[in-house]
Specification:
heterodimer; A: alpha+beta; Arc Repressor Mutant, subunit A; Alpha-Beta Plaits; 2 domains; four-stranded antiparallel beta sheet; 6 helices; 37% helix; B: alpha+beta; 23% strand; elongated; disordered N terminus; disordered C terminus
Chain lengths: 158, 196
C-alpha cells in the first residue's frame, strides 16, 4: 500500500462524490470555487492512481438474501500470491487479501444459500492448484461495517 | 444465462436477481422515525424490472457513466435511463457513490483479528470493539472464533497504543489470532472482468 500525495482539494472532491457520484464536474467546481477543468483533471488522476472508483449500491430491501462468509485459505507458500490472483475470477468472492498469519489468503464471500457456499469452497476454491486447506466461517451478524472505504487500488493494479 | 446458472446452480433464475451478490450499504433511511423498518421489501422487488436491473449493472461498472452512455449500451432511450434512475434513487433503492481506497484515509495497515470469547456474550464484545474507530468491520462468526474484526491503522507504530489503550481493556477476550494484511488482491468493485 503506497502513500498517496493528496491535498485538501482532493479530499473535498472525494467527500462530495462519496455522498453522490452523479454530481457533475461543473457543480463540484462551483461548490469548491475552482475550474471545471481542475475537477476533471483531479478525478482522472485519482481514478488512474486507483484511489477512487464509482459504483452503485443497492438497498438490502431489494435482495435480503445476501449473506457473508469468510473463507480462509492455506495455500502453497511459494506461490500463494499467484493463487490469490487466480481466485479473483470467482464472482462470489467479494474480497481477497494475502496475509501473514495462520492462513496466507483470506477471502470474503457473498452467498445466498448454504449450498452456494459449498459450491464456492469445495468446487471452486479447493479446485485451484496449490490450495491446501480451507476454513469457512459464517458471519451470523454484522456488528459494524464501514461503507465507502475499500481497496480500490487492488482493482486498478489488476 | 446468469453466472449462477452457468455454474450449475439449480433454479438459479428463480432465486437470483443479480448475477453476483451485492454489497449493500447500511441504510439509516430504512429505519423509520418509529424505529421500525419502512417499506415492504417484496413490493419494492415487484416494482423493479429487467431494465432497472440492467441500468444498475451498468452503474456498478461505472457510476459516472452518462445517461447517454448507459442508454446506448442498453439500446434504450436516455430519458428512460434518467427516469428510472430518478425513481430508484428517490425510492431509496439505489445509491451511486464514490468509494475511496484505504490509503486515501491514511490507513496503510490492515489486520484481521479472530477472537475467542469467554465469560461474556460475544455480541457484547463485538459491540464494544465496534466503538473503536480503528475497527472497520466487526462480525459475529461461526467456527473457531466467535468474533472477527478488521482493523485499519495508519501505520504499524499505532498498533501498540491501540492494543494497550483500547483492545486490552475489553473484557471477555480469551485469545486473539491476527493475520497481517499483505496485499489486497480483490475488493468487490465488480471490475474483475477487466482486471487481467
Amino acid at each position: 500500500m503506497s502513500w498517496p500525495d493528496l491535498d485538501d482539494l482532493d479530499h473535498r472532491i472525494i467527500a462530495i462524490l462519496s455522498k453522490d457520484a452523479r454530481i457533475s464536474n461543473r457543480s463540484i467546481a462551483a461548490d469548491l470555487g475552482v475550474n471545471e477543468g481542475t475537477i476533471r483533471l483531479r478525478l482522472k488522476r485519482l481514478q488512474q492512481d486507483g484511489l477512487i472508483a464509482f459504483t452503485a449500491l443497492i438497498s438490502p430491501k431489494l435482495d435480503r438474501s445476501t449473506k457473508t462468509a469468510f473463507v480462509s485459505i492455506q495455500a502453497d507458500m511459494t506461490r500463494f500470491k499467484q493463487i490469490a490472483r487466480e481466485l479473483r475470477q470467482i464472482p462470489t468472492i467479494h474480497s481477497i487479501m494475502t496475509t501473514l498469519g495462520p492462513f496466507n489468503i483470506m477471502t470474503t464471500c457473498f452467498y445466498r444459500e448454504i449450498e452456494d457456499l459449498h459450491e464456492v469452497t469445495v468446487r471452486q476454491i479447493m479446485a485451484v492448484e496449490g490450495v491446501q486447506h480451507v476454513e469457512t466461517s459464517i458471519a451470523v451478524k454484522t456488528v459494524k461495517f464501514t461503507n465507502g472505504v475499500v481497496g480500490v487500488s487492488a482493482v486498478a493494479k489488476g | 444465462m446468469s453466472i449462477d446458472q452457468a455454474r450449475g446452480f439449480p433454479n438459479a433464475e428463480k432465486r437470483f436477481r443479480f448475477d453476483v451478490p451485492f454489497r449493500y450499504w447500511q441504510d439509516p433511511s430504512l429505519i423509520g422515525n418509529d424505529g421500525k423498518e419502512t417499506g415492504e421489501g417484496m413490493d419494492d422487488l415487484a416494482d423493479f424490472d429487467e431494465t432497472d436491473l440492467k441500468i444498475v449493472e451498468q452503474l456498478r461498472r461505472n457510476g459516472r457513466a452518462t445517461h447517454q452512455q448507459i442508454a446506448k449500451a442498453l439500446d434504450i432511450a436516455p430519458t428512460t435511463v434518467s427516469a428510472r434512475m430518478r425513481r430508484m434513487e428517490e425510492s431509496g433503492t439505489l445509491r451511486v457513490v464514490a468509494v475511496s481506497d484505504f490509503a486515501v484515509h491514511g490507513y496503510h495497515v490492515l489486520i484481521y483479528i479472530g477472537i475467542e470469547v469467554s465469560g461474556r456474550a460475544p455480541g457484547d464484545v463485538a459491540e464494544e470493539l465496534a466503538q473503536f474507530e480503528e475497527v472497520f468491520a466487526a462480525y459475529l462468526v461461526t467456527g473457531r472464533y466467535e468474533v472477527s474484526v478488521l482493523l485499519a491503522l495508519p501505520n504499524v507504530d499505532d498498533l501498540s497504543q491501540f492494543v494497550t489503550r483500547k483492545f486490552s481493556k475489553v473484557a471477555g477476550i480469551r485469545s486473539i489470532t491476527q493475520s497481517i494484511g499483505l496485499d489486497i488482491i480483490k475488493f468487490g468493485l465488480d471490475s474483475v472482468e477487466d482486471a487481467e
